[in-house]
Amino acid sequence: MRRAPKDSAESMRRISRRGVLLGGAQLAFAGALALRMRHLQVDQADEFRLLAEENRINIRLIPPSRGQIFDRNGVILAGNEPSYRITIVREDAGDVDDTIARLSALVQLDEDELGRAVAEMQRSAPFLPVTVAERVSWEDISRVAVNAPALPGVTPEVGLSRVYPRKGDFAHVVGYVGPVSERDLARYEQPDPVLRIPRFQIGKVGIEARHEEQLRGRAGAKRVEVNAVGRVMRELDRREGTPGADLQLTVDAGLQSYIQARLGTESASVVVMDVNNGDLLGIASSPSYDPNKFVRGISVADYSTLRENDHRPLASKTVQDAYPPGSTFKMVTALAALDAGVVAPDETVWCPGHLKVGGRRFHCWKRAGHGHMNLEQSLRESCDVYYYDLALKVGIERIAETAKRLGLGHAFSIGMSAVTDGLIPDKEWKLRERGKSWVIGDTVNSSIGQGFVLCSPLQQAVMTARLATGRSVAPRLVRHIGDTEQAISEAADMNFNENHLRQIRRAMFAVSNNRRGTAYRSRIIEDAYRMAGKTGTSQVRNITAAERARGVTRNEDLPWKRRDHALFVNYAPYDNPKIAVSVVVEHGGGGSKAAAPIGRDVTLQALFGGPPPLDAYPSGDRAHIAAQQERLQKLIEESSPEASSRA
Amino acid sequence: MSYLEYTVKTVPAGWRKMLFINWPLVVLLTALAGVGFLMLYSVAGGSMAPWAEPQLKRYALGLALMFVVAMVPIWFWRNMSVMAYLIALALLVAVEFFGTVGMGAQRWIDLGFMRLQPSELMKIAMVMMLAAYYDWLPMRKTSHPFWVILPVFIILLPTGLVLTQPDLGTAILLVAGGGLMMFLAGVHWAYFVTLIAGGVAGIYTVFLSRGTDWQLLKDYQFRRIDTFLDPSTDPLGAGYHITQAKIAMGSGGWTGRGFMQGTQSRLNFLPEKHTDFIFNTLAEEFGFIGGFSLLALYVLVLVFCITSALQNRDRYSALLILGIGATFFLFFAVNMSMVMGLAPVVGVPLPLVSYGGSAMLVLMIAFGLVQSAHIHRAR
After folding, report:
1. In the structure, what pLDDT confidence band is assigned to residue B366 with cuts at 50, 70 and 90?
2. Among A432, A459, A430, which residue's Cα sits nearest to residue A443?
3. Staple A201 to which of A177, A553, B32, B325, CB 3.0 to 4.6 Å?
4. How confident is the model at residue B284 (pLDDT cuts 50, 70, 90)?
5. In the A/B pair of chains, how many CB contacts fall below 8 A?
6. DSSP states of A319-342 as a string?
7. B250 found inside a domain
8. Closest Cα to residue A316, out of A203, A409, A416, A407?
9. How confident is the model at residue A646, as a pLDDT?
10. What pLDDT, in 10s, does the model give residues A488-532?
11. Cα(A583)–Cα(A455) distance, rounded to whole angstroms?
12. What pLDDT score was predicted for residue B1?
């Protein structure tokens, strides 16, 4: 088709016009794009740079290694040992089932744990390691490492896990660690992020719990670059954490093991304290339990066995249980009376076997009566009537005041869990707590450590140490935190009349050295180590009239739960006191029979720093002491193989 | 002036044609492809495989095709226009039956040595067809309703086929490209004004209907629109890609993070980093300066096309060059708008830079046509 040139020229002009127009519009649009680019890349650059960094950088915590706990000589009580686990990375494993089959031929795998691991593997990203076995032995790990070429994607990994090499010996003192629970997290307002690390463990009871902050340390962190699906591409930088501080206790591991062995299966507790600086050399509660089981996760069956045992292995009896102190309280009553000036040391009181107060008869343990008793005789033979008489003269308020000055009735904060206050009653207390007014019979009961009076074994050791020194010694359990020594509390002179104290000490000496003393059978005959003590037998029941009529008052004839508690406190050596010891044997019967021998054995063991020579014992005892020493030594070696070798 | 009125003597012949090729345009295209190789090398983590090397080979092939096409006189191509359109249309129908499904859409025919996307071919074939149509149509009939309806069919027929694949991006490019051709040819303003006004009114009605009884779109479709308008409302779902793309771009700053240092693309936060979102990788690694330079290259290509068209007194040639320029513009304008969060993500590659065979070859052939028109213009 021919076209008119005019038409053609006209149409070319129009096309050019529109072409230029369109070109202009295109240019304008390109300008808009450039502005948008500028807006994103220049105006908002910082914001987007930040978002990009947030995208790619992940912060991972590095758990700190937990501080260790040592005894006074550097023996390890709580340490960290490498614990091995086996992980599988799905994408490296190829055929996962096949790999697991080959792995289980080498290593015993737990069915449940394996099932959980396989399920986790299906869910999680293929490059994430999944734990298939934990707490694997070194032998198993070696086998896996040697067979690595046949086990693609399988990696042995090492972590640290808490271990208590002394097993039950320090269970109540050191406590144990366990996994972080929701309740633990709820305790803190802003929980340390390290607590959120899977498998992280924190102290649950004892020193582990009370000194958690110091032992835990501070988590480190590493910044890693991750890609869009979360795979770690490389580590950018890392800041190492601060390991937890090591703790050194005042306790002597050797002595503690000895005490635990000596207490055996009794439901009993012993506290050994340095009278000069308050260091607790031994603080044992029996029966005990293996804290390592709690670290691994104790089975329900094991736990209920521990809970249902009527000897209460889980209880930390030295600090958390309070008992009526019985006759061991008589020193308090005597000191209060002497200080008040209501009695002189050689003034005698007539004991007919009972005392009638307010129309009620208060019996002496010796029904026939002791006859005339002065201070030394009454303490030595533990005459009750003498103290009833003293209490009536001096009154409960002064007795309570003296008791409190001697360290009874309030808790010492020593870093263990659930430390009890005990109880020293007075008139105001009874009105407030019981809503009843004080009666004279309460004073009489209190004078011999019965009635409302309650003391923990720790408090009784403190009382004994204060009587031995006249100074306000306070217990110390933690000696060093990291490199800082913990202050020894200042033991000020308590301003008791030195003469009165001497009278009481002499009477206590008579208890375990005079032929008529209640603990004479548990005497030490080596002059340099002679001890001064006091037995106690505290009733946990009221003897009914029917029982009295039947004549069934012998402890051995009663069910265990209703027998008397046996108590003994002592310090030694008499002329130069070094240690104070307090013993409580729950439902053990008489203090002189059940508690005093333990007190003596522990005292000698502590003073000698090991098995004492037999010469220290009366000749009649040596044969059975020798046999006992041999038996205990064997027991200690069996229970903790490393116990004899010091780290 | 039509090609029949040429003083043929003024047109170069034989190897002399090489001298009359628009060489600056060749340099520009090579520069663009070079940027593509660089970025494909970077997103592969500093490796020629798997993208940079095939792209390089395709560019070499494309360059050869461009020269071959350029050597052939433009009047031959004018006569081939209808044929090209019909072949492309036939291939589009064929892809419905023999097409290979990829990414949930039937888009290509496997030719063995390469995968042919007929929809790419159609972009150029349609420009040729419309240029030929308006070259043939007397000027005074241009705005006659009948002669307007006809090209609308020429545009909507392949568009409908492409939409069934479904490939929204290409469909939009076809409609917009065809529309621009009609505009260039001189169709009366009123048609475009009416169309735009109608479109705006339609969109307004759709939004107005939201939440009423006569709601025109499904709820999920509205939500998609919401996500487009504000990607932060759905950062992990549909908005994830565009959010990550903007982060990549923005974090580049003025000068970028350095070659192969772009964390967003290297760590795979950026989706489709070798195809649709390759511009973000460039912007992340070379910053505003890099991004702006690429934009400038594209604009220069346009400028050379328009200049060439204005020099050309042949109607077919001028329309063809302007149309190919407009199609090229639509490619990068839609892609850049999309990756900068100005338009919905519809899947349009960045011309000559994104990884992809058909688009590269078709564009090089198109520029071959531009060169042919340039060489064989009346002087």
Report:
1. very high
2. A430
3. A177
4. very high
5. 154
6. HH--B--GGGGHHHHHHHHHHHTS
7. yes
8. A416
9. 38
10. 878 888 889 999 999 999 999 999 999 999 999 999 999 999 999
11. 12
12. 46
Write down the ipTM of this complex: 0.91
Which pLDDT score is estimated for A38?
92
Pairing mode, strands A76-89 and A154-163: antiparallel
Instruction: Convert A502-536 to b/e letters by CB count within 10 Å (16 or more is b).
Output: ebbbbbbbbbbbbeebbbbebbbeeeebbbbbbbb
- Determine the pLDDT at residue A645: 41
Please give the pLDDT value at position A358. 84
- Mean pLDDT, chain B, integer: 86
pLDDT at A399: 95
Residue B45 distance to chain A (closest CA, Å): 13
- Give the separation between CA A385 and CA A364, rounded to whole angstroms: 6
- Smallest CA-to-CA distance from B158 within B182, B123, B192, B134 is with B123
User: What is the three-class DSSP state of A159?
Assistant: strand
Output the pLDDT for position A547: 60
Cβ–Cβ gap B267/A233 under 8 Å: yes
In a domain, B232, yes or no: no
Tokens of B160: 């409908």
* Contact status, residue A332 vs residue A408, Cβ threshold 8 Å: yes
Q: Do B139 and A227 make contact, defined as CB atoms within 8 angstroms?
A: no
Cα A452 to its chain centre, rounded Å, is 27
The total number of structural domains that make up chain A: 1
* 8 Å CB contact of B340 and A37: yes
Residues 6 or more apart whose Cβ sits within 8 Å of residue A105: none
The tokens for B119 are: 């929809």
CATH number for the domain that contains residue A104? 3.90.1310.10
Taking 50 as the pLDDT cut, the residues of chain A under it are 1, 643-647
Yes or no: say if A355 and A444 are a contact pair by the CB < 8 Å rule.
yes
Residue type, A568: F
- When divided into structural domains, chain B yields a total of 1
Answer yes or no: is A145 within a domain.
yes
Instruction: Choose, out of A21, A40, A54, A227, the residue to mutate when testing the contact with B (most B CBs < 10 Å).
Output: A40
The residue among B251, B279, B299 with the most chain A CBs within 10 A of its CB, best to mutate, is B251
Cβ separation B291–A27 shorter than 8 A = no
Check residue A85 and give its pLDDT.
Answer: 84
Half-sphere exposure of B22 (CA within 13 A, CB side): 29
Residue B223 lies in a domain: no
Q: Which of B267, B302, B337 has the CB atom closest to A56's CB atom?
A: B267
**Structural domain includes residue A100:** yes
HSE, CB side, 13 Å, CA atoms: give it for residue A367. 3
Strand ranges (E), A524-624: 532-538, 565-572, 579-585
Q: Which of residues 310-369 of B touch A (CB under 8 A)?
A: 310, 313, 315, 318-319, 322, 325-326, 329, 333, 336-337, 340-342
Q: Is residue B220 situated within a structural domain?
A: no
Which domain covers residue A126, as residue numbers? Answer: 83-159
Give B-chain residues touching A18 at CB under 8 angstroms. 183-186
A55 neighbourhood in chain B, CB within 8 Å: 244, 247, 263-264, 267, 269
Total count of residues recorded for chain A: 647
Q: Are A328 and A449 in contact (CB under 8 A)?
A: yes
Report pLDDT digits (tens) over B180-227.
999 999 898 899 999 999 989 988 888 888 877 777 777 777 777 777
Is A133 among the domain residues? yes
E-state strands within chain B: 100-102, 105-110, 115-116
Please give the residue range of the domain that contains residue B285: 3-186+237-375
- Asked whether residue A590 is assigned to any structural domain, the reply reads no
Name the H helices within B230-343: 239-252, 263-266, 278-311, 315-339
| Alpha-helical runs (H) found in A455-570 | 457-469, 498-513, 545-550
Neighbours of A308 (CB within 10 A): 8
Q: Determine, for residues A11 and B186 on separate chains, whether the beta-carbon distance falls below 8 Å.
A: yes
